[in-house]
Protein: Cytochrome B
Organism: Sphingobacterium daejeonense
Amino acid sequence: MKHLHSTLAIILLAALIIVILITLANYFGNKAYNRKIALIGLITAHLQLVVGLIVYFTSGLGLASFSGANMKVASSRFYFLEHPLMMIIAIILITIGYSKSKKILDAKKANQTVLIFYIIALILILSRIPYPVGSWSIFN
Ligand code: HEM
Ligand code: HEM
């Protein structure tokens, strides 16, 4: 599951960047909103949420280390609180952005809505991803 979680992390980052670039092109090119492209980001994010929750309840770094004493330990707090919380907020933003755009008839506005929500989500994800990358199980 940890391996899957690190693999999906890379797939999700790549998916978000691709969705943002294609939607940017559609926005500036005054083209139709491409819901299927935005859906790639949504599905990858939801998959990562499920896998992340499983890792959270099974890994020693997740719920198991949630304690008042560990709050003072930055490296522990990162995994049992900051990382999961920020990622869940980002995934909620992606879901809201996708959902809102689906109902917008004006292509320019739909593209713009997905762009705003997905770009903020990407920034939040990048802010709480566990660097250094060398420790990811996919690279070991
Ligand atoms: C903890 C698990 C999950 C939660 C809480 C969750 C939550 C949600 C929510 C709230 C929506 C509503 C979006 C809307 O208003 O249209 C949604 C839509 C969706 N989710 Fe999830 N989801 C989860 C897991 C998954 C998984 C595992 C997948 C697939 C691999 C998935 C795929 C989708 C798809 C395809 C849509 C809607 C697409 C559409 O409306 O066109 N979700 N999810
Ligand atoms: C945007 C979504 C997410 C991304 C990109 C992401 C990325 C990562 C990465 C790269 C790691 C390091 C894995 C390793 O050391 O091999 C990690 C670890 C972890 N993640 Fe996530 N994550 C996401 C969402 C979540 C969520 C939603 C949860 C929990 C609710 C979660 C819980 C954890 C935990 C507990 C660990 C530590 C696992 C361990 O080494 O024992 N993650 N995450």
Observations:
- The CA atoms of residues 2 and 55 lie 6 Å apart.
- The helical segments are 2-28, 35-58, 68-71, 74-103, 107-127.
- DSSP finds five helices and no strands in the chain.
